[in-house]
Amino acid sequence: MTKTKTALITGVTGQDGSYLAELLLGKGYHVHGIVRRNSDFTSKRIDHLLTRPDFVTSYGDVVDSSSLHSLLVEVKPVEIYHLAAQSHVGVSFQIPDYSAQVNALGTLRLLNAIKELKLDCRFYQASTSELFGGLPETAPQSESTPFTPRSPYAIGKLFSYWSVRNYREAYGLHASNGIFFNHESPRRGKNFVTKKISQAVARIKQGTQDNLRLGNLDAERDWGYAREYVEAMWLMLQQPQPNDLVVGTGVRTSVRRFTELCFAEIGIVLEWSGKGVSEVGRDKKTGKTLVSVDPVYFRATEADLLQADPRRANEKLKWKPKTDVAKLAQLMLRYDLAHEDYGFPDEA
Fold first, then answer.
1. pLDDT, tens only, 309-346
2. Which of 8, 152, 166, 230 could make a disulfide contact with 20, Cβ separation 3.0–4.6 Å?
3. How far apart are CA 17 and CA 103, in angstroms?
4. Is 81 a residue of the active site?
């Protein structure tokens, strides 16, 4: 009789954590999630799982070595998916010290606990495309593209990336970095630009919001669907050898274009005029200004162009994303038209 695998997920209440928990439970895993005590307000993403006997949560925090050590002793996972982070790039400029504590040292604490306990497990680190800095001359970005982080968030993640590499090479850990490009969903947090756009468009349609204010409309990202991307995380830990892989769609889309796609879902065509902070997007039919630029949303240093070269991951994992950015915008907008809040598991 095959023994049930136990997986540990940090950041289980987040977008990726909730999708990953569902995926692993569907594959017969026993899933143990780590929840920060003050993150209960986002637990609705996993509320539908809490009555399952094969899904357990415990309070813990990646800034607390003792809680991590105790949980690893208790759970003895065969796979660890480290998704917990201060994950908002813009916010990291405001709280750089805390961002480093979580994004850099949190990973080191976990890796060191695995080493000290001699735990026989496989480790996945949620790395990020922000490592590349988004400089236009580097696009598209692959595993061999030099890292040029341009935010405290990305700098912390770079520390984690090299920590994984170091512990893998020094101690023989099966530890991998998933360098994932932006992945979104109806479960995305409200402070991320795609969710901000889709919710605002839904509210404009419903008459509860007048317009949408954004920062850099020209920033380009490689946007995919988070529900699909968690499968690539799992596949990375099923490989005989650990690796560091770039995962994305290979297609870049501007913030301006994503906004247009969302408005198109409610039958509005945007017409743009002006430049820089004076640029506005108007309803082509009525002339009403629906989108404007607000400098308060500019970052101190911007990652302008992030586009994946995912060929190596596609080949090794036999995995490719299925949902393009137009379908993604449609999924998010239709969900927000039907739900005032976010994070529930019933998206189409």
1. 999 999 999 999 999 999 999 999 999 999 876 555 65
2. 230
3. 16
4. no
